[in-house]
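About this split. The held-out portion is used to measure sequence recovery: a designer receives only the structure tokens and must propose an amino acid at every position. Recovery is the fraction of positions where the proposal matches the reference. Here is one held-out target exactly as it appears in the evaluation file.
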């Protein structure tokens, strides 16, 4: 009975109730509940045992007629001892001896069955079946854990074996019967343990559910009290707010107007007239339209007054007001239909001067444009750094950028990447691709400019430009918040030499493991490499480059990106021609 509850479940319960320190208290509660349950069920166990002892006395006259009188005496003695245990359990109000009484009853009935077995032939006695009955009955009624069930069942089996060993030795030809009996006893022990495990888990779950219900009920009561306090507080605040409303209306920073459906002013805060530089009584300017700039008046009639008259709410309606001194004021109006007791009182308007905000928005826009210009200049400067370290054809970066843009726009139209390739994605791609070979600044000139075949070590140094470039951009990212394109630039720098079949470098990524931006770059960079002048091989024509890339689909390139390339190959040829220089370009080593 000492196992209380699964620690993980109890920890979850205590978190639900708000404190890890409550675990011990609820463990004690669960243990006390089990002890009360055991005390009630011990009485049932004793009563059932006593009934079985007397009920099966009729079996003695059939199974052992010679010993029936002796067995009746045993049964009456066992019944009397069981009655004493039942009385002791009844008198033990506090349950201090419940476990002792329960164990005593179990031992009493077990020893009684073993005595019958010994007196009726030992291992061949049919009375051994009483042991599984005792085990099943006891474990089914008593709230035992699987561990306790195994102990009780094993105890019965041990008493059975010891009784045979000391009082009814087993002949050699009866060993098989003994093993058969023990096998069935052990099977019943396992069945009882499984049943005990199931009941114990159900009991724990039921206890946790009850505790959760109690916790929820307590929380609901607490929330109800809080709600009542909140209602009382808000009612008081509402009453105070109503008292202050008129004063606050006069002090509010926005202008408040009440107009009718035609725009005539029924009431306006004094601040509105001061703001407009007009007197409250100013002839024709008693209408809202008299304060609206001429070019906005029709829009106010159709889009503001008409909508409010239909009961629609309007927010953020922007217009220009004409002040008395001739200046125009940028304003924003929010309005609603004001009613009381289903009677229309007018259209309530809240007018806010947004002139200052407009100026700040324009300043912010100019600042953002300057940031983007600086960002672009920085990108190009970094890209030019890598370009000047290589024997790169003139306007190489511009061509790469346009090739990637064409591919991205074609992919955006398709069904595979339409959602992923947004306008923002294309903008970041245009900014990022020019940094793809920034890692080449780490390659020594002797290797970069070398004619002929590179050694394995030199080839490895060249290949590391992808890692070096990606690390440089990663460091730029870590310096601050950075721009959204840097994450894409990092992926392109790292992975633009990966191959679709997984044989590329530096990581040997395969298929969709390669970022889409790097797959786009792989096709664009290959086309640029094939069609640019080089000292190391002949230049491909546009048609030859297209054929080579198509052959690489599914091996070197993403087949979907190649489809986009084929669909837009004429654009590639046009870009190649437009961005080519009049003088012959020197090529670069394709790494």
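Reference sequence for scoring:
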């Amino acid at each position: 009975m000492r196992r209380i509850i699964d620690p993980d479940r109890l920890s979850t319960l205590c978190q639900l109730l708000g404190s890890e320190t409550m675990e011990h208290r609820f463990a004690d509660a669960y243990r006390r509940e089990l002890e009360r349950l055991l005390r009630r069920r011990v009485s049932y166990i004793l009563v059932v045992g006593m009934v079985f002892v007397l009920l099966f006395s009729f079996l003695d006259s059939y199974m052992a007629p010679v010993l029936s009188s002796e067995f009746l005496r045993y049964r009456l003695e066992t019944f009397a001892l069981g009655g004493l245990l039942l009385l002791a359990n009844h008198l033990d109000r506090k349950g201090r001896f419940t476990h002792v009484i329960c164990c005593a009853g179990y031992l009493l009935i077990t020893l009684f069955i073993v005595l019958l077995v010994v007196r009726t032939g030992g291992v061949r006695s049919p009375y051994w079946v009483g042991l599984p009955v005792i085990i099943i009955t006891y474990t089914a009624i008593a709230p035992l854990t699987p561990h306790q069930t195994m102990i009780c069942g094993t105890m019965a089996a041990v008493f059975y074996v010891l009784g045979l060993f000391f009082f009814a030795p087993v002949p050699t030809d009866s060993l098989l019967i003994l093993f058969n009996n023990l096998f069935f006893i052990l099977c019943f022990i396992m069945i009882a343990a499984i049943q005990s495990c199931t009941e114990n888990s159900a009991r724990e779950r039921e206890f946790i559910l009850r505790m959760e219900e109690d916790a929820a009920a307590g929380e609901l009561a607490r929330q109800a009290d809080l709600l009542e306090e909140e209602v009382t507080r808000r009612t008081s605040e509402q009453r105070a707010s109503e008292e202050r409303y008129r004063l606050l209306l006069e002090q509010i920073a926005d202008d408040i107007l009440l107009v009718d459906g035609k725009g005539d002013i029924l009431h306006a805060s004094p601040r509105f007239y001061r703001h407009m530089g007009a007197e409250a009584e100013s002839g024709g300017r008693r209408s809202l339209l008299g304060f609206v700039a001429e070019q906005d008046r029709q829009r106010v009639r159709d889009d503001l007054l008409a909508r409010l008259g239909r009961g629609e709410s309007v927010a953020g309606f922007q217009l220009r007001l004409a002040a008395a001194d001739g200046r125009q004021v940028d304003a924003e109006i929010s309005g609603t239909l004001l009613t009381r007791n289903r009677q229309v009182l007018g259209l309530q308007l809240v007018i806010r001067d947004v002139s200052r905000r407009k100026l700040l928005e324009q300043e912010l826009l100019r600042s953002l444009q300057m940031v983007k210009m600086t960002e672009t200049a920085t990108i190009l400067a970094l890209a030019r750094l890598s370009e000047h370290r290589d024997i790169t054809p003139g306007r190489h970066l511009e061509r790469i950028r346009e090739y990637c843009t064409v591919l991205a726009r074609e992919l955006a139209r398709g069904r595979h990447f339409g959602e992923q390739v947004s306008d923002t994605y294309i903008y970041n791609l245009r900014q990022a691709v020019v940094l793809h070979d920034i890692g080449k600044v780490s390659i020594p000139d002797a290797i970069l400019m070398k004619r002929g075949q590179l050694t394995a070590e030199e080839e490895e140094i060249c290949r590391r430009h992808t890692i070096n470039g990606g690390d440089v951009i990663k460091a730029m990212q870590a310096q601050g918040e950075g721009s959204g394109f840097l994450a894409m630039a990092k992926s392109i720098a790292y992975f633009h030499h990966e191959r679709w079949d997984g044989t590329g470098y530096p990581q040997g990524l395969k298929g969709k493991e390669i970022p889409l931006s790097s797959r786009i770059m792989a096709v664009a960079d290959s086309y640029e490499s094939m069609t640019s002048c080089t000292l190391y091989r002949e230049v491909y024509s546009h048609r030859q480059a297209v054929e080579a890339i198509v052959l690489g689909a599914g091996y070197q390139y993403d087949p979907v990106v190649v489809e986009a390339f084929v669909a837009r190959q004429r654009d590639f040829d046009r870009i190649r021609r437009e961005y080519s220089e009049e003088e012959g370009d020197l090529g670069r080593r394709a790494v």
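Annotator remark: The first strand starts at residue 255 and ends at 259.
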